[in-house]
Amino acid sequence: MRRLPAWLPCLLILLCVACSRPTLPRLAPDATVLAFGDSLTYGTGATAEQAYPAILAGMIGRNVVNEGVPGETTAQGRERLAQALDDTRPALVILCLGGNDFLQRLSPAETRANLAAMLSELRRRQLPVLLVGVPQLGLRLNTAPLYGELAKEFDVPLEDEALSDILAQRSLKSDTVHPNAAGYRALAEALRDSLSRHGAI
Fold first, then answer.
1. Which residues form the SGNH hydrolase-type esterase domain (predicted)?
2. Helix, strand, or coil here: 68?
């Protein structure tokens, strides 16, 4: 009996991982993307034209609506999400919230519950979402584990490295918790790559 090549099991494992990756529907050329979040979405530390939604719009050739509210917690975001969805009628949502919860040392369980409620609302409306992981407080800027848990629970794509990498580099920050113009461009590039990797563009 002919032996199988030693590399074949590894290839099969890689294929299984690729097949299990959450996918996003391809965005139509006239689609609207809703960037929903706090100051990291708003673009604090840079101009409106340098915020990641504006940069991302140019990169992907779609309308990206900036619905970032500085200082917003996940509880506040949960309250305004439905209205933002009604107003913009997006084809896809980029959800980036949680930083202010961490800064205010709010309960991680409440943060998780609020994000889960938002993801449930998006699922109810059959709206695809890209979840963006936010670093938690600590000596090392690691993305809070709750984002990975939620991405798995709701089977949605997760970008969990970009913000941690950007905020770990002084040259990409305007202050201790916000990117500068170069940092927001790096975030837009990472989100573009994630959208492409998951099939949206």
1. 35-186
2. strand
